[in-house]
Structures are given as C-alpha cells and as structure tokens.
Amino acid sequence: MIDVLEATVNKAISKHKATYADARLQRIYSNTIVVTAGKVERIIPSIELAGSVRVLKGAVGISIFTRDDKDTIAQAVEKASKIAEAGSSSIKEKVGLASSPRVEDTVRLGDVTDPREIPIDEKKEIILSCDSAARSVDERVVGTSFRYIDEVYERFFVNSEGSKIEEVHPYTELRTTITAREGEKISRCIGRIAASAGQELMAMADPLSVAQQVAKDSVELLSAREPPSGKLPAVLDNKLTGLLASSIGLMSCAQFALVPEGELGGFSGKLGEQLGPSSLAVYDDPTSAGLPVFYKYDEEGVLGKPTTLIEDGILKSYLHSKSTAFAFNTGVEGHARCQSALFAPRPFISNTIVKSGDLRFEEIIEGIKEGIYLKGLTGASTTRVVAGNAERGYLIKNGQLGEPLSSPSFTIDVVNELKNIDAIGNDFEVLQLRITEEEESNIISGAGPHVRFKELRIG
C-alpha cells in the first residue's frame, strides 16, 4: 500500500505541480458487543476503510476515497488538485503548511495483545460476568447495560517530503451503565474503562470490580438529597479534573485561538499570561501507551510529543497542525488529529493532563468549613464555560464528608476561574471522553488529581 500512496504523491507533484502532497489510508477493524440485563443484544464485527489525498497549490485541496484500488486513488489526486486550483483563485491570504522532518518508520503493536486474535466468545463471557456481578450487588439494581468496543487501527501515510509511515495501534473500551430503583426514586451511574490496549485491559482494569462499584454508587444515590445552590468552596474528583483538563486542552488548540470571538476562543492572544496559580501545570501527551489515545505519529506524519500548555499557571503554547503552525510561524509537535482519513487533520487534544501536586485528599478537604465535593460525570457542555452535572456530590462540613447529594450541577469559567484553584492533590485518574463536533467524533481523555476551588457556582 505504501507504494501506491507514494506513486499518488509523486503524481501530484510531477503532473499537477503541487508544492506539497500527502496521501493517507486507514483500516479500522472493530468488534462491538452490547449486553443488557444479562442478555447479549448484538455483536457487530466490522472493517472500515478510509483514505484521502491532500495537495497544496496556492490553496489546499482534499479528496477522500473508500476503496483501495489504484484507479480510485488516482481519481482522488485529480479531484484534490482541481479543488486546490479552484480555491487558490478565490483566497486573498497566503495558505501554507509548515514543513516537518522526513520519516520512514513501521510501528507495530509490540507487546500489546491483538484483539483480533481473541475469540469473540471469550470477550462476551467477560461482559456477561460483569453484568452478573453488578446485578448481585443489591436487589434495587433494576437495570444493567454494557457496551464493549475493541478496535485496531492500521494507518499508512506518505508525503512529498519523503515520509513513509505504517502504524498499527489498538483501542479497547467498556462502558457500564447501572440503574437502581426504590419506590419512585430512580438513580443511574456510569463507569468507563478505556485504553490504547488490547484484551489485557480486561485483566488490568478489573471490570468486574468496576461494575460492582458502579452498582453500589447507583444504590447509594437512592438516599441522596437535593444539592445546595450558590457559590461554594468545591473539590473536583479526578474525573471532573479530567473534564477541566480537556476544556483547557480544547481552548489551547490553535484553530480556536485564531478565532477569538468563537465559543472556544478564550485563550486567543493569551500566550504568556497568568491564567492560574503557580502550582498549576497542564500538558497534552499522545505518547503514553495505556492511556485512551496513543500514537507515535500524528495524521500528518509528524512525531508526537508531549506539549506543555500551562506551566506555573502561565499559558505557554498552543497545539498545532501543519496549517496552524504555518499561520503562527512556529514548529509542529505532532498534534494533528481527525476521526479517520475521511476528515482533514487539525490541531486537537489527545490526553490532556493536570499535573499532580503533593496533597492527600484528607488535606484538601480539611480546611473547608462548608462546601461540596463533586464526584463523577453524567454530562457536560464545553465552551469558554464548562457547564456540567456531577454524578453525585457530598456536603463538606468542618473538613469532613457528609451526606450524599444527587447530581449537583456546576459551572467553571475556564478563562477567569482557574485562578480560584488553591489546592492540587497527589493522586491521578483518567476520564475517557468522546468529543462530537458536527459529523466528526474523536476519542480523547482528560486526567489529573483532585483539585480544590475557592468557590464555584453550584446549581
């Protein structure tokens, strides 16, 4: 396949006089298993093929394809060239793509267990065992739902700078939803385990224990009371810190920083500004195997690197693709992402992480006379202001956790309220998310420790 893509790129340069060209092809092998109330509802194996050709001729033209024969790919380079020519006649500002080093590399799964080699019945039995474990927790557990997905991505990339890359990496996820009921009161909790891993995730993450804990949490919520409202000292658990980290990461994507009036343009023009306390450090890292997102090379063939976004509370950098790096006259560090080769690469977060501090959880809450502990996530909208619903909460009185609270809502003005962070924990946990924007959906994660705010708006 590399030979076919290389011929395509050479044709774009020699015949169509492009100043730059690249070609991508991706195959995704996946299995989806859905179990509800102890019954297997569906098992869906699939193979998806996606590809695209991109050329630069005054403007950028992209043409996609879903078949891997030579004629189809040859037609794609013709279309991409025509699109670029049409675009160049109407644009006023110069368009370009930053250069990157030439790379020839083949990246295999390594020590990871290939999910394609595990019998589907073995995967099914693990999920059915999780379902049984959750339903055995309490008779008030009335609903169980499990959605398992494993995927293997095969990616091929060639560009006119001489790069030729093959990369294979896995992804496995199990989402657990448990519903409890007592009389007219209904509660629901969600658990997720996900990693750039194969079937070993099912051993390392202990999905049976996760299912049981989600069931216990759901039962506990049946006795929870309504949360207070107003501005209160608040402690975010690791999952909600992960949500906050993801919001910081999104606003650090360069394409949003180019549009200051946009919903995610809050960090526009703020490089070098103090946004949070000196204890706050945030970085984005696509290179840590085992986190939900992992790749060695991004969608433009650039070596992925951890990138510091905030250090000592100061905004240090944006995340770039080749196009935004050209616009900002800076280098690229491997943060161009997209759902598949059917979409154009753009700067996007991978695993955005708040660096852990040195405080134990007990030390974080001990100074709070009256506040709230927010735990878990049921849903959120992310713009300059994060508006979310915690799965549950607990009152904090005189440094001690009190009674449980039912699904408290909260808002965080990310640009202005990071300065209200006054304590950072020494623990670490990951929140896997899927960000959907129009037709495109990307797996991301946020991670970090417990974090305390002097006050947040609750309710």
Short overview:
This protein has 459 residues and is α+β, with helices and mostly antiparallel strands. Helix content is 22%, strand content 41%. Strand 10 (307-311) and strand 11 form a beta hairpin.
Mean pLDDT metric: 95
Number of domains: 2
* Shape, per Cα inertia axes: globular
What percentage of the residues does DSSP assign to strands (E)?
35-45%
Q: Give the total of beta strands.
A: 22
Main sheet makeup: 7 strands, mixed
Q: Residue ranges: pLDDT <50 for 5 or more in a row?
A: none
Structural class: alpha+beta
Query: How far is it from the N-terminal to the C-terminal residue, by CA?
Result: 55 Å
**Radius of gyration, whole Å:** 24 Å
Overview of this protein structure:
The structure is a single chain. Strand 12 and strand 13 form a beta hairpin. This protein is 22% helix and 41% strand. It is globular. The strands form four sheets. Strands 1, 2, 3, 4, 5, 6 and 7 form a seven-stranded mixed sheet that branches. The protein has a six-stranded mixed sheet with strand order 11-10-9-14-21-20. Strands 8-15-16-18-22 form a five-stranded mixed beta barrel. It folds into two domains: 2-223, PmbA/TldD fold, CATH 3.30.2290.10; 230-458, no CATH class. The model has no long low-confidence stretch (mean pLDDT 95). The longest helix has 19 residues, at 70-88. By secondary structure, it is an alpha+beta fold. It has helices at residues 2-14, 70-88, 120-135, 201-204, 207-220, 238-251, 254-257, 322-328, 361-365, 414-417, and strands spanning 20-36, 39-56, 60-65, 104-107, 141-159, 164-182, 185-195, 230-236, 282-284, 307-311, 314-315, 336-337, 346-347, 351-354, 370-382, 385-397, 400-406, 409-413, 421-424, 429-437, 440-448, 451-458.
